[in-house]
Amino acid sequence: MFYGAVVWDPWLIVAQIVCLQCLYYITLGILLSLLVGTRVSRLSLVYFFDYATITTSTVTGWCVIAAILISSVAGAIYMLYLIERAKKCLDFSATLYIIHLFICIVYGGWPSSITWWIVNGTGLAAMALLGEYLCIRRELREIPITRYRSNV
After folding, report:
1. pTM listed for this prediction
2. 89-108 vs 59-82: helix axis angle to the nearest 10?
């Protein structure tokens, strides 16, 4: 995927988006169950998609914020293996967060909390920048070339 002509494959792009979105929500679910599940009596989709749960006034809100930001870091690592190209990281990160915004709008209405926008903007920036950094490091690695001695 690193060298040669890049062929535009819409099915591959859709599959990468779906995989990245699923991995992000699985990671977010695991982190929410670890950080928030111990604090509340019942964990629900409210903590995933309702903007009101992202607040700095409660410890539970800070746990939700931490889960979202850690999931963004994990998303950058997923992009290293799924996307593999530094110049595509911003596109896939923005797509993930735009889809998340639409799901949040459908679930709980337009996010009117400034905290929601700051946390998700920070998550988008962290995922895109860390993903680009990791992919650039991989792209700039030396290609190992083994040298064989001939017995002639």
Report:
1. 0.88
2. 140
